[in-house]
Amino acid sequence: MVYVEKFKEDAYNCLHCRLCTFTWTWPIQPEVWEKEESFQAARPIEPLAWPEGSFQDTCPSGEKYKFEAYFGGGKSWVARALLEGKVDIKDPKLVDILFACPTCGSCQQQCTLEEPKVGYRHRMISLIEALRAEAVNAGSGLPGKQKAFGIHLGKEHNPYMELHKDRMNWLPNNIKLPSKAENVYFTGCTSAYRQKELAQATVEVFRKAKLNFTVLKDEWCCASPLLRTGQWETSWVSAKNIAQHNITEAEKTEAKRIVTTCSGCYRAWKRDYTEEYTDVLQTRHNFEILHTTQFLEQLIKSSEMKFQGDVKMRVTYHDPCHLGRHVGVYDAPRNVLKAISGIELVEMPRNRENAWCCGSGGGVKSGYPEWAVEIAGERVKEAERLGVDAIVSACPFCWRNLNDAISKYNSKLKMYDVIELVNKAMV
Amino acid sequence: MEDLEKILQDIVGPENVSSAKPICESYVTKGIMEIKSKAPAIVVRPKDVEEVRKIIALANEKKVPVVPHSGGLSGGEATPMREGSILLDLRRMNKIVEVNTDARYMIVEPGVTSAQAWKFMQEKYPNYRPGIPDGAPPSATILGDHLDRGFHFLSTKYGSAADAVLGLEVVLPTGETVRTGSYALPTAKSFYKWMFGPDLTGLFLGAQGTLGIVTKMALKIFPMAKFRDVVAFGANDWKHIVDPCLDVLKMEFVDLAQGGNHYLATCRRARYKWPPPAKPDLLPAVWMNFELGADSKEELETMKRKINDILSRYQKEYGEKSIFEWKLDMRNIVARLTKPNRISVPYAGHKGGGLLFVTWYVPWKDATTFGEEAEKLMAKHKFSPVVWLAAVDHGRQGLVMPIVLFDPKTPEEFKAVDALDAEMTERFLSLGGIPYRPNAVHAPRVMSKSIGYYDLLKKVKKTLDPNGIMHPERLALK
Hints:
The structure holds two protein chains of two kinds.
Chain A: H1 8-12, E1 22-25, H2 30-34, H3 36-42, E2 54-57, H4 60-65, H5 72-83, H6 92-99, H7 106-110, H8 124-137, H9 146-156, E3 183-186, H10 189-194, H11 196-208, E4 213-214, H12 224-228, H13 239-252, E5 257-260, H14 263-276, H15 278-281, E6 288-291, H16 292-301, E7 313-317, H17 331-339, E8 343-346, H18 364-367, H19 369-384, E9 390-393, H20 396-408, E10 414-417, H21 418-425
Parallel strand pairs in A: 3-4, 3-5, 5-6, 7-8, 7-9, 9-10
Antiparallel strand pairs in A: 1-2
Helix pairs in contact in A: 5-8, 11-21, 16-17, 19-20
Chain B: H1 2-12, E1 17-18, H2 21-25, E2 42-44, H3 49-62, E3 66-69, E4 86-89, E5 96-100, E6 105-108, H4 114-124, E7 128-130, H5 142-147, H6 155-158, E8 165-171, E9 177-179, H7 201-204, E10 213-223, E11 227-235, H8 242-250, E12 256-261, H9 263-266, E13 286-294, H10 297-318, E14 323-325, H11 330-337, E15 354-357, E16 360-362, H12 367-380, E17 386-392, E18 397-406, H13 411-430, E19 434-435, H14 442-449, H15 453-464
């Protein structure tokens, strides 16, 4: 075992309490406890009645396949069995257990072993990704189109079977960007090839805000799809080469910060290139990494950006896993939406840390496409119950899969990215 | 085994049977209540009693061991101790069959979790709740906790969870379905624990799945108090906490009394280490919380005043540094009163992940001795001496629970846990304790010392389970 050893502690730390199998919300959110003033303000004057918790399904994989192995805790115990030589890494069922999971991180979130205060975080997502890498290393794994996109990515630098030369086709010909700028907009493959409107909206917003920005002259995939599916270093593609290429390209622009509208790219630049995968990618950089919503939030706070338009819409916000649970950005997109006149933001019962995954991440969209839309369908139904006009997210990958579910289930909901509504508000 | 799997697939559908090694290994748990867990050979997920009945009849015919598993929160106790077993994952059977707020009972299937039941009652019958286990995660099942004589959030007032069971539906090892209590009569509601003859419900409570598969349970639901609060006593050692608490408990109004030593707090979220941290100044050496519920503010205040009177009396006798009110902050009060809570889970948060609850029923008055002995033995075996204490049935019984935190990565640690457990068993038996959920270390030692009990149990087992298919090795029943 080359990769899993590093996460041995995480495999063995699972008590098997099954808390990871559903969301568990305290009546007063734990984070409020940290802010003593807020907590004191919430302190009841009368003797306490019964503070009620809230419980809902949280694991797309477990809810679909039901056997214990598909839940986070079960996977930990499978990892133990693997480390103890009781399970074969090439076992087809093991492959299914490992790859039929959007690695949304909800199991990790629900696990009470996550103790940032003592510097310990139960690394369930990392453990799953390392197990996948072991499977790939052994010549196994990669269901559906995962290997095909990996091979294509090695040649054309995108997982969408598109040509690299067409990558910049989304950018209108009349827009000329400088070779050097303070900010780089890292587009990402989904916005470049599929949800081009999101890339175009981002550029329009940046131009309306008169920002000093450019895009990479030769942008490649961020490598997130490879890292998520265990294709770290294979005979067909090298995540290291890809990540290093992007950093080199970014350095050529002499930019201070990288801004991206894609939550997958954001996680890759923010965590994978600098913390979690530095041993695999051998990367480091000094860029400030911001998701577009964080960047916009800063601009709104400093009054550098103002909205003139009114966007009359009742919306709910879907937290992308790669932005929310994986990196911890929850408030920025909400604050941006709240700053737009006319927007009424309503929360889904499962929100923020407890958000139900859209189902597209972790290779599920390419490995199990029908199930991916099924997962998104549950999210669409959750949103429908609120009587909103639209679901808003902050990731083109979420946008795509949720929109697929909206179509499949004949929902009347509209799908937007935060950047699209911002663009509407900037008349 | 392949033939068996094929027949099982015919019974429950192919998607609900798996003999895949990774699936089977995922059910293993070496901890919580038992560390002798083995992976099953096949996992089967029945949807109803009829499917359970067919599976058991088949297993009996083929003489294959069967192990029931509802939420799995008993850990190793809910997984096989013998190779080649069928594990029945009962989580598909998760219906709340009936709620009756006049006779105050509900009927649940094995897969109904504390979370599910609590939420259901919160929404549909807000004035009542079942006795959900306290401290255990909300993933624990109601049926499993009651069947295993668990400690629920009103156990100090109403007794162990098993005391709230009114009737059962059980599939016997030979494949017959039976019902107990008034639930046995098709025309009667499940309002009464007793049938015409002896209590056959009790036969299955605490049986750890050795005598049949419980597929439905009728259990009491309890009224929700309108006003709640928590008060706590702190003390400088075990001997100064027991008598004041007993006087409080004898007033018979406390909902829940539980506490323990300071290691409960200091080892709760710390990484595993030896020696354990010294007692911080802000913590008492030992403490007990009293959760109180009342229908009026005045009633609640009266309770608190009475508790305070007892405290004052003992402070005069012991001194104010020996016994005192431990002022809890609002965070602790909310954490205690939030139900279901998950207070026990973070004990596994130390680096290592191994956790074994070794719980003993003791007369409350003797809790001091057991607590002190547990601390000494754990220190001797180099385990952090974490000891939890609770009162059941107004202190007629006490629960003393050493929580053994260990590193499960090494076989040596498992051996060390066993050695501690064995020595503690001998010592606690000599002091008159009763193991709460006997594990593989406790059961043979306890059974062999019983006066006729083990022989009778073996006769019952032989009668009900002639082929010995139900959870073999549990309770020292082969």
